[in-house]
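User: I want to check something. If I give you two sequences, will you return the structure for each one separately, not as a complex?

Assistant: Yes, each is folded on its own. Here is the first sequence with its structure:
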Amino acid sequence: MTAETVLSNARIVLADEIVEGSLVLRDGFIAGIDAGAARTGEDMGGDFIIPGLVELHTDHLEGHYAPRPKVRWNPIAAVLAHDAQVATAGITTVLDALRVGMDEDADLTSDDIRKLADAIEDSVQQDRLRADHFIHLRCEVSAPDCLRAFANFETDDRVKLVSLMDHAPGQRQFVNLETYAYYYQRKLKLSDQDFRKFCEKRMGESARNSGPNRVFIAAASQERGIVLASHDDATSAHVDEAIEQGVRVAEFPTTEEAARASKAAGLGVLMGAPNVMRGASHSGNVSARTLASDGLLDILSSDYIPFSLIQSAFFLGDMVEGISLPQAVAMVSKNPAQAVGLDDRGVIEQGRRADLVRVRVDDHVPVVRTVWRQGRRVA
């Protein structure tokens, strides 16, 4: 039996224009797009219909599993709580970012991370989830246990993205040691003397491990067809290294120099949606709004606030000169989907998956009213 739904009286955000009309959804796919009034269908009341959002880098799942120090939640329940939050924010495809390689900042172990991955995969198989879930491995290449932890995923086919990151002091995101001290010394509650020892240890680990670990993980990912991302590139030399290693996505470049070099090399430049909404990076690095205004931004990620993804798209489309709403929506749907090879979604077009979000804007804030994944209402 054919399952068909008609959504009428909507403002439909297509790849390059907004059409007032109706959408026909059939058997999980978009079967028709019709301009003008429709006699039948569910009345959308003039709300926007946009593609389901595609999230490449959210750190939110770990917080549901370990909500307090030394507290561990049931991993399936944690996945379900995370899934509910992202789906109701309009995210229909999510790459759950899981940490590979632990440092003193980590409250989790590699065994915890594998439990979360197993919970994701079991929940996908049991059809418990609202959004479509894949895995993004955040590889802390300076960590001594990075390769051992990476080996836990060597046969995992849900891994779609691997990022190469080094959060040691003096590197990339934390070139400025004052910023690093503000972030870590306060968080770990270290005295000045203990903080100096901490920094020396982290810098030593980075010097020993980062280079060989980057090379190994990049080669292994390419062999398996997994998309590679660099992380916190600060200089054109960092970008050159990323290109040499086969990187396709530049996550959170910290300077305009690195963003410009990444864009020129054809990498997808990804920035945080919270950075857009705040107007600045929480680490004192380049503003995502500046990159967007300069045409250097391709992809947005919610990072640590799931709702910021849809919020930033409507903000850019409304407030930043030269960026239309369809262009801004592409940064949270079409562009991230294409970056990781998910070409069946991310745009409202006949034959694509019916992953859709109904949105009304109230006082400049988008309100998610309904979410469909493959034509089925999930929120």
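And separately, the second sequence with its own structure:
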Amino acid sequence: MTRKPKAKSLSRREREIMDILYKLERASVGQVLRKLADKPSYSTVRAQLRVLEEKGHVRHEEHGLRYVYAPAVPRDVASRSALRHLVETFFDGSTEKVVAALLGGEVARISPEELDRLAGLIAKGRKDGSS
């Protein structure tokens, strides 16, 4: 049975571990440990992977005497869920507030091509919404 990850946000270290697992696709505790920047203990990484598994973000398989961990959901699904949580938590569920925050004062940094693509996405959203 695959658990759906809880919307609860991940700690900085948990996000770092998830990023490593998404890049490697599957990894042992030792492999994750080698990729971490400030080298916590082996037992700390093992405990954090166990917590991530309890939260439903990772799963493990036994390979001999070691566990090999992998993300429980595809990265795009996890990112959409995290984005939904972010929008609900910090922007009252408003897409307009998110876009305004992203563009706030930074419009000059957006190229004309990016603005055209954004306009196209908005037009497509309008078309799809009226269907």
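Because they were folded independently, the notes below concern the second chain alone. Strands lie at 27-28, 58-63, 66-71. The chain has two domains: 12-71, 75-130.
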